[in-house]
Request: fold
Amino acid sequence: MDRNTETKSMILKAFKKGYTPTAEELLQKLREAEPNFSRATLYRNLASFCENGKLKKVSVVGKTDRYELNTGCNYHLVCEVCGKIEDLEMAGAIKTPARLMDYEVHSHELMFYGVCPKCQKKRK
Ligand SMILES: [Zn+2]
Reply:
């Protein structure tokens, strides 16, 4: 494996289902194994993984972007307190229509905002 391939697989391996780090959180994790892991390399690879569909960027207004494995899930639960994001399996999920109001439609997303159980407990 050349160095570039090794770096890519190291980044992907850090992701597990339900792990939705910000780029900086991910960098910290990677630097535990490789203290000199370059920030520029990470950002470049994250962008290319999002382009080829391996990862997905989850953007929440007012929060730092997070990344997750692209499982094809378009529904998310967002904790407004700690920023945790969870995939939400929905029965009767909406199928992306090919066209809508003359738009050629590529994807859709749905976010539910609230407070996660951990943060609810801390509030009490
Ligand atoms: Zn929370």
Remarks:
- The chain is about 35% helix and 20% strand.
